[in-house]
Specification:
The chain is mostly helical. It has 4 helices and 2 strands, in the order H-H-E-E-H-H.
Length: about 160
């Protein structure tokens, strides 16, 4: 019983280590290596700083201020209503993914913190997945019976049945 309890505690500790420490650390390492492949990390930091602060009033940062508003709302037809053919589509101007403008720095910080939390949670799941996959071969190795033991067990079983 004690051996099983210690085994469970050890496995839980390893799962926590891979999930909460090694997985996020590996993801951060890959992220930094990809960022460093474009050149200087400090230059990228300064460029991002200037992009956020240039032209922004005090207490604000430059960010996306797009309003995602649906221009046409779809309403299902009433029963018995005759459907009109769809009007010809006019050529719409291309959608702009990010209209830059001043954004409150607190709301930008909350959005960035939420993004970082989501990234950390995904890396936790990655770490747990790595632990789960790597645990399989070690479990199989522990359960494998050596040929010598197997032959002794086979002889004992043969003697008891005879």
């Amino acid at each position: 019983m004690t051996k099983t309890l210690f085994t469970l505690i050890r496995d839980a500790g390893r799962a926590a280590l891979y999930s909460f420490v090694l997985g996020p650390a590996l993801a951060l390492y890959v992220f930094v290596m990809l960022a460093a492949s474009d050149g200087s990390l400090s230059r990228q930091f300064l460029t991002t700083f200037h992009d956020l602060t240039d032209g922004a009033p005090a207490g604000k940062v430059m960010g996306c201020v797009n309003e995602n508003v649906m221009t046409v709302r779809f309403s299902p037809p009433e029963p018995g209503e005759k459907l009109n053919p769809a009007p010809a589509l006019e050529k719409a101007p291309p959608e702009v993914l990010c209209q830059r403008g001043p954004v409150d720095s607190d709301s930008w910080a909350r959005a960035t913190d939420a993004t970082l939390l989501n990234f950390w949670l995904m890396s936790v799941m990655l770490g747990f997945g790595v632990w789960f996959v790597l645990r399989g071969p070690s479990l199989a190795a522990r359960k494998k019976i050596s040929p010598d033991t197997h032959s002794i067990l086979a002889r004992q079983n043969k003697e008891t049945h005879e």
